[in-house]
Specification:
By secondary structure, the chain is of the alpha/beta class. It has one domain: NADP-dependent oxidoreductase domain (TIM Barrel, Alpha-Beta Barrel), CATH 3.20.20.100. Helix content is 41%, strand content 13%. Helix 2 packs parallel to helix 10. This is NADP-dependent oxidoreductase domain-containing protein. It comes from Triparma strigata.
């Protein structure tokens, strides 16, 4: 198992690798957005996350310079040994970054463009390999251990494309990578069920949080089928932190709202690694408190009550997410 034994909070670089993202209140948290400033910010957050116990780091070709930032940070960590399994890096192919290092794309243009073709897999896997290195067939000398399809959907046809799936298997064998897919949208569960039928995936990454819980049973089925689960957007891009029931529960329990939101996901039976989306060191430190908090709340009924109070219909959740502004 790739992720077994790693701490249950990981760090996603979706918001750290590029100047613009859809998280709420981003402008108040990040002032300077140059490449140099964003790399320095990424280093500060990576330092804090590592010190707090994070050992899984998640990036993607479409997350701006996320692969470059994690590579440069790892190069400075003299205490780490590539390939020893203490640090695991995952990346994704399938979206092309098109924002040209802008917070807002003129004319409302796209920040990233989906392309699940074989040609794009070949191009982006080569770019990832050049940036982060190969895993090596027998453990290797790289931190990169996981290659994921970025936001696989039934509509894109990627799970029916035998050429793509065969090529991913070739990359797995050549570089020692594990294979995964990330999911998005109201059909996450249905897409995951189809992915399980292919038999080639080792991990699944899905959106799951106090608001959007629709994929829960399918994630549990995936775990029981032998896949490891990673959860993204566990704070719903910041939306869950504006929920009165969450804020009230955090005040009553004497904990930070962000830690409680993440702890509720950590405690789920599919045993995920839950990605922090921190963009400041203090956020990373607070997010990591979720690991101890989840254990302290186990068996109290607090998490179950919170999940019941906050859940919304997936259609409403994804519609609201689609309306979030890049900032």
């Amino acid at each position: 198992m790739l992720l077994k034994g790693l701490p249950r909070i990981g760090l996603g670089l979706a918001a750290l690798g590029r100047p613009g993202y859809i998280n709420l209140d981003r402008t108040a948290q990040i002032a300077e957005r140059s490449e140099e400033a964003m790399q320095q910010r990424a280093f500060e957050v990576l330092d804090a996350a590592y010190a707090a116990g994070v050992r899984y780091f998640d990036c993607a070709r479409s997350y701006g310079l996320s692969e470059v930032f994690i590579r440069n940070w790892l190069a400075e960590q003299q205490q780490l040994v590539p390939g020893d399994g203490q640090i695991v890096v995952g990346s994704k192919w399938g979206y092309r970054y098109t924002a040209n290092w802008q917070v807002e794309v003129p004319g409302g243009g796209a920040h990233e463009v989906k392309d699940h073709s074989l040609e794009h897999l070949n191009a982006q896997s080569a770019e990832t390999l050049a940036t982060l290195g190969g895993g090596g067939g027998s453990g290797g000398n790289s931190y990169l251990k996981l290659l994921q399809i970025h936001s696989a959907t039934l509509e894109s046809g990627v799970l029916e494309d035998e050429a793509v799936l065969s090529r991913m298997a070739e990359l797995r064998d050549a570089h020692g990578w594990r294979l995964g897919l990330s999911l998005s949208g109201v059909a996450q569960g249905k897409t995951l069920r189809r992915a399980l039928e292919t038999g080639i995936f080792d991990t699944v990454q899905a959106t799951y949080n106090c608001l959007e819980q629709s994929a829960g049973q399918d994630l549990l089925a995936a775990k029981e089928a032998g896949l490891e689960v990673i959860v993204k957007e566990a704070m719903a891009n910041g939306r869950v932190l504006r929920s009165p029931p969450l804020l009230a529960a955090a005040e009553r329990l004497g904990c930070a709202p962000d830690a409680l939101a993440l702890a509720a996901v950590v405690q789920q039976p599919f045993e995920p690694i839950v990605l922090s989306g921190a963009v400041t060191p203090s956020q990373a430190e607070s997010n990591c408190e979720a690991m101890a908090l989840a254990e302290s709340l186990r068996g109290t009924g607090e998490v179950e009550a919170l999940m019941e109070a906050l859940v919304v219909a997936p259609e409403a959740y994804w519609q609201e997410r689609s309306e979030l502004a890049w900032n």
